[in-house]
Amino acid sequence: MNTNKIGIRNLAEICEKKGVRYAVISPGSRNAPITVAFLQQHNIKCVSVVDERSAAFFALGIAQQTQSPVAIICTSGSAVLNYGPAIAEAFYQKIPLLVLTADRPNEWIDQGENQSIHQYRVYNNYIKKSFELPIEPTSEKDIWYSDRVVNEAINTSCFPEPGPVHINIPLREPLYDLNEETNPFPPKIIETLPYQPTISKESRDLLISKWNKSKRKMIVCGSETIKPELLELLRVIALDDSVIILAESNSNLQLKKEECISSIDRNIEVVNQFKLLELQPEIIVTFGGGLVSKKIKFLYRSSTDFEHWHISVSNEHWDTFQNLSYVINDIPFSFFKSIISEPCQISSSFKNDWIALNQKLEVFHQAYLDQLDYCDFKVFELLMKSFPKESNIHYGNSTPIRYANLFETNEALGLRVNANRGVSGIDGVTSTAVGASFVNKENLTICVTGDLAFFYDSNALWNQYLSTNLKIIVINNGGGNIFRIIPGPSNMPQFEEFIETRQEASISFLTQSFGLKHYFCDSLDGLKNILPIFYEAHETACVLEIKTDPNYSAEALKNYFTYIRKQYEQESLADD
Q1: For 27-44, what is the mean pLDDT?
Q2: Alpha carbon separation from 491 to 216, 372, 488, 558, 562 (Å, rounded)
Q3: What is the DSSP pairing of strand 2-3 with strand 178-179?
Q4: How far apart are CA 311 and CA 45, in angstroms?
Q5: Domain 209-356 in CATH: superfamily?
Q6: Neighbouring C-alpha atoms within 13 Å toward the C-beta of 470
Q7: For the domain 372-561, what is the CATH superfamily, name and number?
Q8: Would you say residue 67 has pLDDT above 90?
Q9: Prediction pTM value
């Protein structure tokens, strides 16, 4: 039995035929016909998640892993607004979400009807495109129009770059009428053919000429899912002595230490403080998502002695360093392939100078950690060494992703790293990891988050699809410790209540109320002993609470860069 609403039947069938394999449905009445229609599609896995905010982030986690559109379906009214944070994150991460919102018919908007708001284009500032289906299409032409809209919406979610699209669906009552009749107007499928974007030969020749003449070139990779073919190209480019590659942990650029620098901040700190002109690039090429590091942004915003080239299929003018020279409307693979197609040997020490600095600072980095007592920094040192091979790591925002970027990426582990750095909110950290673990059953999904983010997204655990391969690590320093680290907030009156937001809620009681296994430690030895047990297979998802001191943890991180600078200065003076 299926819904008797033909347009909704076709909507679900088109989704299945165009490769939508997951639908995350939040319960409601107005969306009942959509739910029924999707449940009839044998190739779409439908799951039910009550909280719409958590449901949308859950879908985001699925789409991150599968790199294909995931449908989210909800009833009308405030439910629609609860999708907002995840849609914004998907928009800036370029994650394909198909947002299907049931609605009252237009004639009943602003008429005091229950659960009715202005839903069409409600996500206007953070959606690729908004659509609205015709109300109750019954004629062949109306169905043709409705089907065309659905095709266009799904195609738009994937091309030219992925992202969320919204289809608002006004529905009249009755909502629960079913029938077994054959569809008189089966849907037509409209395909968008993949294409290879490219710049003109003249433009390409100009860039290659500039590239080959430069002795100091820097490639900066933001958050990205690096495909194997692009990785191989970058490995070839990394052999060039005039090129240094910088990549943060969530760029997923698995290169060796001799090929790439993944601990950007400490290198930039020294380059900035000591004005190392030999490390000043002439060309900076950026691609991927936004950067976590503020240090690299601020350093190159204070300089104009370089050209900045940004690669963007969507013609995004990301002037990260306030010195944008060229927007390259191309995919990174195509651009870098053209670069290596006309190799030019040029004498340069640029790469080796950067690598030498990084190796020197790595020694100082380890010396600093060796003298620290138990704190957040020491916890992350141990965590970074403990992750099982090929795990899927999902870092929380604020301190977790920043700590991760202070350590070298161990490419031998083959980790995949995600973080919600599109908008960088704390609202869906756990839910996104839950969604990722739902579809990535072969590997552990390890969510590393803070206590505030964990409590904020606690409805992520109110989910009947929690996988046994999900491991949640909560660094519990009793509040938003990031505000003790960044300049300014800790000097404000009533800092603990209104900025840091001190809390004493029980992680143990919360996790156990959802039937999860809870582990606890408050020392480095305790953490060393518990991690192997925590990573073992369990019958449920597991939560590890790591209790740390907020004051000492903040001081340890704030003093880190001072120590690195002093050690570098002392060694430089000794060399002189």
Answers
A1: 97
A2: 41, 25, 6, 15, 20
A3: antiparallel
A4: 36
A5: TPP-binding domain (3.40.50.1220)
A6: 26
A7: Thiamin diphosphate (ThDP)-binding fold, Pyr/PP domains (3.40.50.970)
A8: yes
A9: 0.95
